[in-house]
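Consider the tokenized backbone below.
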């Protein structure tokens, strides 16, 4: 690793400069280094970005922890079984989570850098200059190619009184060492859904407030079913709200809103904002380089990850699309290869799997029924409740469904949408089926292992033209 603090090092010119030291930034820097480039990797804040520090890793660790609490409560599904679990030290659990975060940040980011002697790591906020160079502190960085990968941050809505509230976001909520007795979660997207269930299972009284319901971008059958399952766990979901104002009194936060024209008040101990994420572009001085952004501040890129300025690329959350760590790394790798080898590789998210780690899990790939129809496609769908999936029956947990979307004429699969306790581990099979251009007949004819959740995809495919309730085990 090049040491820019060495007095003998006065390097300010690089083949590639990468702004941002999260998953996308590291992917771009490593890819460029592997291509033989001399790289400046510019980080600001904690190295490693959102996923390892405040996103995927800490949230999934906490989801697994509280899953144990739910499992013992659900033990009554089986005759003769009694189990119990309780939170004895929430702070200890939070500290254990943080230890994992620190360990992975070191192993996957900090300790990786010394393996690449052509990557120089620079700490500081980068700003574009009119000539296209970058200013990092007092150092001017010149590079023939630049890749922006500065990620995103929580969006703060403009609501009267919010500035006076000691609110939480997805980062600070997972740092709480004392559980709140009650929590209002504003936002029904994947962040709100996951965090709401964590705190509810840990013992907090949780209310989700949302304008459009839970997971409004997924199939409506899935959003409606998940809302009911949350209600069964004691999570209140209030939808179709128009937010008016906040006020804070001793020990309580009050949200004043209207629902169907009627004013209501939602009172809880703490408020968690889960109202989406916005790209980190405000400090880059993009206007100096003539780099276009959209209405939410996301950097506009084409299929080759090029911005409006020649030689400058962008990837990951900073573009405002597909805000998943694996898509950030994928896009950044394409950006680096295109920057160094010519613009020949195109970003393709047509078979991008996405997972919400609720329980049951929501896993999707491809088009929804509404999206397919919006494209003018004549569609046909199948919906299979998990009551028809042997794995779910054996586990005595039939919460969920599988919905497949296909072209009515060709039978080609267009989308797969799963709501199931183990849905996340099944969606990649559907993604590969879509990638291969399979029809629902092809999928229904494949051999699947018995008593698995993924077998539900086979049954859902057969449901297009058969009544699977009339099939014997493994028939068809």
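A designed sequence for it:
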């Amino acid at each position: 690793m090049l040491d820019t603090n060495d007095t003998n090092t006065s390097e300010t010119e690089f083949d590639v400069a990468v702004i941002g030291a999260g998953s996308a930034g590291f992917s771009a820097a490593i890819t460029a280094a592997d291509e033989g480039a001399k790289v400046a990797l510019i980080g600001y804040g904690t190295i490693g970005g959102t996923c390892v520090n405040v996103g995927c890793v800490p949230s999934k660790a906490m989801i697994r922890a509280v899953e144990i609490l739910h499992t013992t409560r659900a033990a009554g599904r089986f005759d003769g079984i009694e189990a119990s679990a309780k939170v004895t030290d929430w702070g200890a659990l939070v500290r254990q989570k943080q230890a994992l975060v620190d360990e992975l940040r070191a192993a996957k980011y900090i300790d990786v850098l010394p393996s690449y002697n052509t990557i120089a790591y620079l700490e500081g906020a980068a700003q574009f200059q009119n000539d296209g160079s970058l200013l990092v502190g007092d150092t001017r960085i010149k590079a023939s190619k630049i890749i922006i990968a500065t990620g995103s941050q929580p969006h703060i809505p403009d609501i009267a009184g919010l500035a006076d509230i000691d609110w939480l976001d997805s980062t600070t909520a997972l740092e709480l060492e004392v559980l709140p007795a009650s929590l209002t979660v504003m936002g029904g997207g994947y962040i709100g859904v996951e965090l709401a269930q964590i705190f509810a299972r840990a013992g907090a009284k949780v209310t989700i407030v949302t304008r459009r319901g839970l997971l409004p971008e997924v199939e409506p059958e899935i959003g409606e079913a998940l809302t009911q399952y949350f209600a069964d766990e004691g999570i209140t979901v209030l939808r179709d709200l128009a937010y008016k104002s906040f006020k804070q009194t001793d020990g309580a936060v009050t949200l004043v809103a209207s629902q169907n024209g009627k004013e209501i008040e939602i009172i809880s101990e703490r408020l968690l904002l889960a109202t989406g994420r916005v790209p980190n572009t405000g400090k880059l001085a993009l206007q100096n380089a003539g780099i276009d952004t959209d209405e939410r501040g996301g950097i506009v890129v084409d299929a080759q990850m090029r911005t409006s300025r020649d030689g400058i690329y962008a990837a990951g959350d900073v573009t405002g699309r597909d805000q998943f760590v694996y898509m950030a790394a994928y896009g950044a790798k394409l950006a680096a290869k295109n920057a160094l080898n010519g613009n020949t590789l195109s970003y393709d998210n047509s078979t991008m799997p996405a997972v919400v780690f609720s329980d049951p899990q929501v896993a999707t790939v491809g088009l929804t029924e509404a999206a397919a129809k919006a494209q003018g496609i004549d569609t046909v769908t199948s919906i299979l409740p998990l009551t028809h999936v042997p794995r779910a029956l054996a586990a005595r947990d039939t919460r969920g469904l599988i919905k497949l979307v296909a072209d009515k004429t060709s039978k080609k699969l267009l989308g797969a949408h799963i709501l199931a306790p183990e849905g996340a581990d099944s969606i990649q099979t559907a993604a590969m089926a879509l990638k291969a251009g399979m029809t629902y007949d092809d999928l229904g004819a494949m051999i699947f292992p018995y008593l698995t959740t993924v077998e539900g995809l086979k049954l859902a495919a057969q449901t297009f033209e058969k009544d699977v309730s009339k099939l014997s085990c493994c028939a068809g």
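DSSP finds 14 helices and 21 strands in the chain.
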